[in-house]
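User: Is it possible to get a 3D structure for a protein together with its bound compound? The compound here is flavin-adenine dinucleotide. I've pasted both below.
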Amino acid sequence: MPQHHIIIGDGVTAAEFATTRKCNPDDSITIIGRDVANLGRGIAYASAPADAPWRYAYLLNSPARSVDIDFADWINKNWDYMVEVMSGRTPNWLEAAKHYSDAGEFASLNAPREIFGDFYRTRVLKKIEALRNSSVKVTLVAAHATRIERDGTGITIHTEDLQQFRADSVDIATGGPYNKRFDGDDGTHAYPELFGNEYPIAEKLQTGGNLVCIGSGAASLDLLRFYQSIKPESQIDFAVISTTGKILRALRPPINFKPTPFTLNGTFSTADDFLKEVFEQQRMALEAGATLYETRVGLRSIFLDKGVTGYVPNLTEARKIARPLFKHFEGGTRDSIEDFHALEQQGRTQVIAGNVQGITHDADHAHVHYLDENMQAQTFKACVVVNCAGPGLENRFDDLTTNMINQGLINICDQSGGLLVGEHGQTTMQGVRYLGPAVTSIGDSVEPVPLYDAFRLRRAVQRFNS
Ligand SMILES: Cc1cc2nc3c(=O)[nH]c(=O)nc-3n(C[C@H](O)[C@H](O)[C@H](O)COP(=O)(O)OP(=O)(O)OC[C@H]3O[C@@H](n4cnc5c(N)ncnc54)[C@H](O)[C@@H]3O)c2cc1C
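Assistant: Yes, that's possible. Here is the predicted structure of the complex:
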């Protein structure tokens, strides 16, 4: 009997669920997401309006080879197109790329995320067309799912606009948790996030004044590039307030890129023992001249054949690894970090160690209140404030994910703070699978670091559907 399969979400993971599923002729697939017309882009690879100065400003957070080796190859083959599209843009991506592009090392470039979105979406569209050509009915529904329930005959999805859809099976890919919030981050001069608020932020900054960013993760680097795209360098006045007091380290591949080999013999009884050994081997590699990026790629490759539990067999201990490993090897976009430091030399950027408590507003300014390293209350005045703090430990998800957690369909891991799903992404509701960046454990296997990574999310879905 023909099956009806529903996918919820419109990003990379939803697109991969839809296009790698094995279907029979006359089966139907319905994909539900607010921006489903752009299936495959999601938030990370969204397209900006053609005339927006920040179009193509946001870059992939790792070199192209780590995102998709086919994409690296595509850049190589389409370099003339890249030059055409990126010429005359501020910041000057082509100039920053020169060191690598002159050497033909395109795989080491941090390409614009929108261009990766174009690349990936073209593939998604082709696969959807192939599904349709094989008599699978594919329907796109622009809606937001809020609730899921199951009865004896199937599964019902409810949407915000009160539609209901019945299915035999459902895959849910609604993305990662939202930014943690601060009192006043949606006041007159503050924005709870950058994406989607670019026009009002740009308008406010037109009259001049400084920009304050809360948080120093990847989104803070997007905010700097956005700022650079709308203001000349001589007018940049950018402060980052973050608990670490540091911005990310750059992932900077050398021209003769060589992943660091890690040699881990036997197994480890605790997460601490495993981490101690990995950190020591990394320290030695860095001392011998390896880059952070080479150690990171080398480390990730050890989990390809053998999962985390192949090194730390105790599941509870294995689950403790994700967060510290992620933090220890965390790095960011080379272009933006180098720009941040160059502007810092000119006194145009700064990073302040502080734990933000809230934001107040007067007629002309925002006042960011924070506790400094000595737990002293301080205030920083800003023309505009943007919250780029990331989710922290708040785990604030979309309605559907929240409902699923509350119903016990998926669980929060006590050790990693991430989400736990069953084998092949199964939830405890029969026929319903879940995957997203916050997942840290799939069945009895443990993710070495959270899945904030397009390549690993896609690979996981391919595994589920194979
Ligand atoms: C700004 C940003 C930059 C990033 N940069 C990189 C990078 O450079 N490299 C990298 O590898 N990874 C990056 N990531 C990590 C990224 O999360 C993954 O690469 C990947 O894009 C996640 O895809 P996803 O489909 O799981 O989630 P998303 O891309 O978040 O897509 C989920 C979609 O589902 C929709 N949705 C949510 N709730 C519902 C609902 N209830 N009903 C229907 N639809 C819903 C959302 O609107 C969203 O569009 C970035 C993430 C962000 C947010």
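The radius of gyration is 23 Å. The chain has a mean pLDDT of 96.
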